[in-house]
Amino acid sequence: MIIEIRSHGGFGGIAAAAQSRRIDTDAQPAEMRAALCAAFRPGALSELARTPCPGCPDRMRYAITVTGDAADGPHSVTLSEGQLPPEMLDLIDSV
Predict the structure, then answer these.
(1) CA 8 and chain centroid, separation
(2) Is the pLDDT score of 29 beyond 90?
(3) d(CA 20, CA 10)
(4) For 29-35, which contacts have Cβ atoms below 8 Å and span 24 or more sequence positions?
(5) What does the pLDDT read at residue 52?
(6) Is residue 65 pLDDT above 90, yes or no?
(7) Beta-bridge partner residues of 61
(8) C-alpha angle 56-32-1 in degrees, rounded to nearest 5
(9) By C-alpha distance, which of 92, 76, 72, 80 is closest to 32?
(10) Which InterPro entries does the entry mention (predicted)?
């Protein structure tokens, strides 16, 4: 599975905070691969996208695309930092 994450925004849309990552889960150690695959399942991402997020316009946003995990093609969502659980933010920071 390939996970592409583009972060942007935050207070004032600070350009220095923008980042882009491409993660090939097959290239990760087994424990990290399992954590990434569980956290970034298309169903899990869709569920997070349905979570209300009042006050999120001034927070970081993450455009996430997952490919290679489902037969129906790539799955993309854009989530606010407030919609992501702390464990998922830690995973993003660790890769």
Answers:
(1) 12
(2) yes
(3) 15
(4) 32/94, 32/95, 35/91
(5) 85
(6) yes
(7) 8, 80
(8) 80
(9) 92
(10) Emfourin (IPR049457)
Dihedral of alpha carbons 30, 76, 20, 50, sign: negative
Cα torsion angle, 94, 14, 85, 44, sign: negative
Q: Give the model's pLDDT for residue 17.
A: 57
d(CA 13, CA 78): 16
Q: What's the pTM?
A: 0.83
Contact between residue 68 and residue 1 where contact means Cβ atoms under 8 Å apart? yes
Residue 82's pLDDT is: 87
What is the number of structural domains in the chain? 1
Distance of CA 68 to the CA centre of its chain: 15
Closest CA to 25 of 44, 38, 6: 38
For residue 23, give the amino acid letter: I
Instruction: Report CA-CA distances (Å) from 12 to 2, 32, 46, 60.
Output: 30, 33, 27, 10
pLDDT at 70 over 70: no
